[in-house]
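ok so for the tutorial part 2 we go from a plain amino acid sequence to predicted structure tokens. step 1 is just haveing the sequence, like this:
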Amino acid sequence: MPADDRILRLLDTLEGGLSQEKLESLTREFNSLAQDRAETLVFFVLQKVCERLASALEGEGVSVERFEELTAGIADQIADILRDLQQGNGAIGKLEPLVITLFRNLGLFRR
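step 2 — the prediction. this is what the tokens look like for a chain of 111 residues:
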């Protein structure tokens, strides 16, 4: 499958770790991709994950420790999903673990 420049750019963005600015940018790009691609559900979930994290960081001074707790594992899982899409593989099975990680990081997930 040929390289997808948009996904490659997203993977590059994720390499440097997450920040509120990056999360907001990723939210916009995933929203656009959800409307442009066949993998609507995947990009919609990625958009919502980034949007929720950006919202948790917005308007308050978050300590480095809390920031690391909020974002732990998220960038790696998103990158893994994007690589799967890049290779033409389905990624729907990886969405639930990503959302569970998000809820755990936000302190909302209960099991």
